[in-house]
Amino acid sequence: MMRVVVWIMYFAPIGIFVLVAARLGQAGGGDAFWGEIRAVALHVVTVLSGLGIQFLLLSAVLLLFGKGGWGYFTDMLRALFTAFGTASSAATLPLTMECARESGADPRAVRFVIPLGTTINMNGTALYEAEAALFIAQAYGIHLNLAHQILIFLTATLAAIGAAAIPEAGLVTLIIVLKSVGLPLEGVGLLLAVDWMLDRFRTAINVWGDAVGAAVLSRFVPGGAGCERDEEAP
């Protein structure tokens, strides 16, 4: 199975292009899609800005506490682009583990952190759900006090942990966040036009967070294991 997955990965760049082109076509083409983006421009800019800040923070953690430095990031690019194209952490999991091992991360850390992170470490999704709830509240003119906002942040974090590692799963758990503060559920419809694009960015951040976690743990694994050492261990 792993050999078949490797073969498939060689064709991944073509597949990523086709996936993105197909969704752009469903949106009505370039002009129609840009019209949709302009309608919710502040939402898109806010999400991408937040994800960008999150990427920088994760990169800082990698440089300060992980092993590999920026070389680790370049080694992970294949996994990040695949995550962007498939919008699924689960579909990217084999490639994420392969890239992390090839970049020098300890195999034990890779096997422990990345599969676990694929299931529960949806940091990009948590940020998106919190921002989406605030955007819907503003769109409907609903005032949220500080207690409501803290509840949104906490609920978004917990709901993201339970989100499936499949495309646009965040929209399902977003309903939990909206219900926690009494926001209208039909507000999700405001996000559908651009969610498929934003989902790809937050999935890439989710995968990057898992990879950084593996790199950080690799630095503190007893014995400083490499691939050969791990394979010889009983």
Task: Note down, in words, how this protein is organized.
- This protein is mainly α and 234 residues long.
- It has a single domain, classed as Sodium:dicarboxylate symporter (Proton glutamate symport protein, Orthogonal Bundle).
- Helices cover 79% and strands 0% of the residues.
- It is built from 13 helices and no strands.
- It has helices spanning 2-10, 12-26, 29-39, 41-65, 69-75, 77-86, 89-102, 107-120, 123-139, 146-161, 170-180, 192-220, 227-232.
- The longest helix is centred in the last third of the chain and has 29 residues, at 192-220.
- It starts with a helix and ends with a helix.
- Residues 225-234 have low confidence and may be disordered.
- Major sheet attributes: none
Low-confidence stretches: 225-234
Task: Specify the helix fraction band.
Answer: over 70%
Which class best fits the helix and strand makeup?
mainly alpha
Order of helices and strands: HHHHHHHHHHHHH
Strand content: under 5%
Q: What's the number of extended β-strand segments?
A: 0
Q: What keywords describe this structure?
A:
mainly alpha; 79% helix; globular
Structure described in brief:
With 234 residues, this protein is mostly helical. The chain has 13 helices and no strands.
